[in-house]
Amino acid sequence: MHQDFKIIHFTKIVHKDAIFKFYEPIRVEGYCKLCPNYNKLWSCPPHGFNADTYLESYDYVLLVGEKIVRKDKSQAETSMNTHFQEVRRQLGDQLIKLSESNDVEVLIAGNCYLCEDCLRIEGKSCRYENRMKYSLESIGFLVGDIASELLGIELEWPESGKEATSLMTVGAIFAKDDIQLKSMLDQWR
Length: 189
Ligand code: SF4
Known about the structure:
Mean pLDDT: 92
Strand content: 15-25%
Helix content: 25-40%
Radius of gyration: 17 Å
Number of strands: 4
Strand order of the largest sheet: 1-2-4-3
Bound molecules: iron/sulfur cluster
Structural class: alpha+beta
Distance between the termini: 14 Å
Shape: globular
């Protein structure tokens, strides 16, 4: 962990219905259309499926949030965004690994980062279809609302032109029952 930052961990197991209160695919895709990754990465919309069908085999979800906070006396050699990218990839790697050996589906934080050049731009299939994961926002969930309402993460809205002193990242593990998730939670980190 970089000395200029600290990470605060948040976890919560909820029934899937709790996150579907924050499912607004049309509104969220509207935000995604403003992003340069829209329609350029297989992990990003538009998708040829919806979250209901994608997650229909699962009833419970373990939400995993991380809040990255710059320490007060930080000398700021590393930008918040650089550190944020490191943390979200570490979380993504952990979630992908978990999905390889368990009967779960996972959603990582943000877009896929497995290749430098996503093959979607060339109209070719994904290189790692079994490892590539979507995010909560890419399939239509309001991730900021899930973070604040379900995980209790206070969101920061920095002044225009200023770097945030904290950022959050949220992933999710979907399972058929909460007992499986409770045992994963005991081993998490
Ligand atoms: S694994 Fe590679 S090809 Fe597949 S979505 Fe990710 S970046 Fe694109």
